[in-house]
Each structure stands twice: as structure tokens, then as C-alpha cells.
Design brief:
The protein has one helix at residues 2-26. The longest helix is centred in the middle third of the chain and has 25 residues, at 2-26. 83% of the residues lie in helices and 0% in strands.
């Protein structure tokens, strides 16, 4: 059960990172 939770956590983090990179590419901050 813990391995599934870790896998979901990693997947969610990767998804957030991809969305953040997409947002930065659309709206460059610096």
C-alpha cells in the first residue's frame, strides 16, 4: 500500500512540475 502511495505522490509531483513549466513558458516571470 505504501508503494502505491509513493507512486501516486511522485506522479502528482511530476504533473505539478509539468503544469508549472507550461505556465512559465506561457507567462515568463523573469
Amino acid at each position: 500500500a505504501r508503494t502505491i502511495a509513493v507512486a501516486l505522490c511522485i506522479a502528482s509531483v511530476q504533473c505539478v512540475c509539468q503544469n508549472f513549466n507550461w505556465y512559465q513558458s506561457r507567462h515568463p516571470v523573469l
